[in-house]
Amino acid sequence: MSGFGWTHLSRDALRRAEAQLSGEAADVRDEIGFLLIHQRYADRLFPGTSILHTRLRYVLFIPWIYDDLRRHPAGKRAAPDVRDAELDLTRRLLKAGGGVIGRLNYPKTTSQPPSVVYWTALGTWGLLRPRADGRMPSRAQVLAMLRSAGRVAEDDDGVPLAAPGLPFVTLPSRPPGWDSGGDLDFVLTPQEADFLRRHLTAVPSPSTLQPSLLARLAASPPPQAEHCWDKAVLNAAAHDRRVLERAGQAAVLAAIGRGVYAALVETLCEEQDRRGMPRTHRDHLPEVVASYARRAERLDLGALAGDIGPLPALVTDVLQQTQSWIAKGAGDPAPLRDAYAAAERSRKGLRARLTNDLSGRERRYEWNSESHTLAEPLHFRWDRVHKLLSDLHGVA
User: Fold this and answer.
1) How far apart are CA 330 and CA 321, in angstroms?
2) CA distances from 121 to 48, 128, 138, 234 (A)
3) Which DSSP state fits 154?
4) Which of 27, 48, 203, 336 lies 20 to 30 Å from 381 when distance is taken between CA atoms?
């Protein structure tokens, strides 16, 4: 006898599921493990940043909203009140141009509201005070503080005592019209820009505790550069120059690796599965190799591990074998298949495409060569970082 029942999914579970689905839609895939390199270098060079960041002023909007709710507490309704306030923030920003979080969902809420997207930045950039144990308060803990603010004690005359404070540092004054409910924008006032510049220029590298590349770049308008390892950025990198050079070498080696993976899948679809298949990625691979081989060959994998910590052995094997393949002339990528298949299987399990078993054939049957993004270097969030720094310095 068959039947059905209700399954309750938490908000966090739904958020993770949505992130996976939206990642696939945006073609953010990591079959082999190259995004480990991306994330670790990005966290070292640009601490606190996220690919979901859009505009810098959100790091002020969020604590202002929380402080408003602290001053006008609603007891157990803390989480819904924050959600409603962030939804209203979306409404107020609709005319502000690009970068409005939740614009596409409005008037519905989004599972990735600003306070979720920027919470790590608030702590890393010094806008949240650490707890007594030195750890940064989580969003859930601050929501609990808001709930407790709804139970403010009274003095003997029945006058409410001051609501407990939240762990945000002293912030700039709210802009004119903040309490009016009218339109807002992302343009920082001089006071706000000075405040954020002081905080950003003090952000240390998590690896060395010296000023991070983000801190150095925050001191002046950001250089115009396509990649964060371009010469204009290298000149500002100081002690991180060699790290940044290796990041660039790793970025292009990953681009070649992504091209190899896609070419291998195309070949298997055509030769093993007997499917008609365009040569999109096989034809693109020589272009990627021609553009990046010299830089990719120079990457010292031992120094890479020193920069960002050890990678899984199978990912390191892929990088080593790819460099050897490049050194031998980067011909047919078929000899790389075993290394790539092992790394993919360790990450994707039955969703791996390079295996010979039934699940591999089924996953390849779902493969669409035209919808799989052409190989390109890792970006280390540079486009997001550049936009945040442009906001900081008022650069159009």
Assistant:
1) 11
2) 4, 9, 12, 24
3) B
4) 336
Distance between CA atoms of residues 47 and 45, nearest Å: 6
**Phi then psi dihedrals of residue 378, to 5 deg:** -65, 145
Each residue's pLDDT tens digit, 268-308: 999 999 999 999 999 999 999 999 999 999 999 999 999 99
Domain that holds residue 293: 31-47+240-371
Closest CA to 53 of 103, 6, 137, 115: 115
Do 225 and 233 touch, CB atoms closer than 8 A? yes
pLDDT at 159: 45
Residue pointed to by tokens 């003095």: 155
Q: Rounded CA gap, 174 and 337, in Å?
A: 57
Mean pLDDT within 196-208: 95
**Domain C-terminal end among 170, 195, 212:** 170
Q: How far is CA 175 from CA 119, 128, 183, 186, 382, in A?
A: 22, 20, 11, 11, 29
Cβ atoms of residues 226 and 6 within 8 Å: no
Cα distance between the two ends of the chain: 64
Q: What distance separates the 2 farthest-apart alpha carbons in the chain?
A: 86
pTM: 0.88
Domain count, the chain: 2
Give the Cβ contact number of residue 230 at 10 Å: 15
